[in-house]
Write a structure and sequence with these properties.
Blueprint: H1 2-15, H2 19-30, H3 33-38, H4 44-65, H5 69-85, H6 93-106, H7 111-140, H8 162-165, H9 170-178, E1 179-180, E2 184-185, H10 188-201
Antiparallel strand pairs: 1-2
Length: 202
C-alpha cells in the first residue's frame, strides 16, 4: 500500500505544481473504498495497481523530461511486471504509448526515432511478459489467461449487444469506487459524494 500511495503522489507531482493539490489527489486515490479494500488482505490486485501506477508515473516523467533509453525501458519493465501480477493491468499500456507519442510530437522527433522509442518500451514487455503468454498459449490455448473468467456473470457468449451493454455502464462507475468482493455495494451517498469531488475538481 505504501508503494502504491508513493507512486500516486509521484505521478501527481508531475501534474500539479502545488504540493497541496498533489496531496489532495493522492488522498482521494488512497482512501477510496476500493483501494482500502484491496489492501486489506493478500491479493494480486494490490501488486498490479502499485506496478501499473508506477508505470504511469514513469510515463509522466518521460513526458516531462524527454525520452531516453533508460526512461523508456523503465515503464516497459513495470508494465510487464504489472501484467504478470494481473493481466488486466496491461490496460495502462495505451497511457504509456500516448506518453511516447506526445514526447515525439513535442520534440519533433523523426518517425524512425518514434519507432525506436516504442521498441525500447516493448522490449522488456516481450522478454518478461512474453514467455508467460507463450506458456499459456502452448499449454492452455489461452495466452492471457482470459479463460478463467468464462463463468456466468463475468463472460457472455455471444457478446452483449449495445442495447444490453449500455445499461450496464453504471456498474463501471460503481466498481471503480467500491464494489467490495464483487458483491457488497456501499451506501448510495458514498458514490454521490466521491463523484461530486471529481466534478468539483474539474
Amino acid at each position: 500500500r505504501q508503494m502504491c500511495i508513493r507512486d500516486r503522489y509521484g505521478a501527481a507531482r508531475e501534474v500539479f505544481a502545488q504540493e497541496r493539490w498533489a496531496l489532495a489527489a493522492t488522498a482521494l486515490f488512497a482512501f477510496t473504498p476500493t483501494m482500502i479494500h484491496i489492501h486489506a488482505y493478500f491479493n494480486n490486485d494490490a501488486a498490479s495497481v502499485a506496478l501499473a501506477t508506477l508505470a504511469l508515473w514513469q510515463s509522466l516523467v518521460l513526458l516531462r523530461r524527454g525520452a531516453a533509453p533508460a526512461r523508456l525501458l523503465e515503464p516497459g519493465v513495470l508494465l510487464a511486471l504489472a501484467g504478470l501480477a494481473k493481466v488486466s493491468a496491461l490496460l495502462v499500456a495505451p497511457g504509456v504509448g500516448v506518453a511516447v507519442l506526445l514526447d515525439a510530437h513535442r520534440r519533433r522527433l523523426p518517425f524512425g526515432r518514434l519507432i525506436l522509442n516504442g521498441l525500447w518500451v516493448g522490449l522488456p514487455v516481450l522478454l518478461l511478459f512474453g514467455p508467460w503468454a507463450l506458456y499459456g498459449a502452448a499449454n492452455y490455448g489461452d495466452p492471457f489467461g482470459f479463460g478463467t473468467h468464462h463463468i456466468p456473470g463475468f463472460y457472455h457468449d455471444p457478446l452483449l449487444t449495445p442495447a444490453e451493454f449500455i445499461p450496464r455502464l453504471p456498474w463501471v462507475y460503481l466498481t471503480y469506487w467500491g464494489l467490495l468482493g464483487t458483491l457488497v455495494l456501499l451506501n448510495p451517498l458514498t458514490y454521490t459524494l466521491l463523484g461530486s469531488i471529481l466534478l468539483l475538481a474539474a
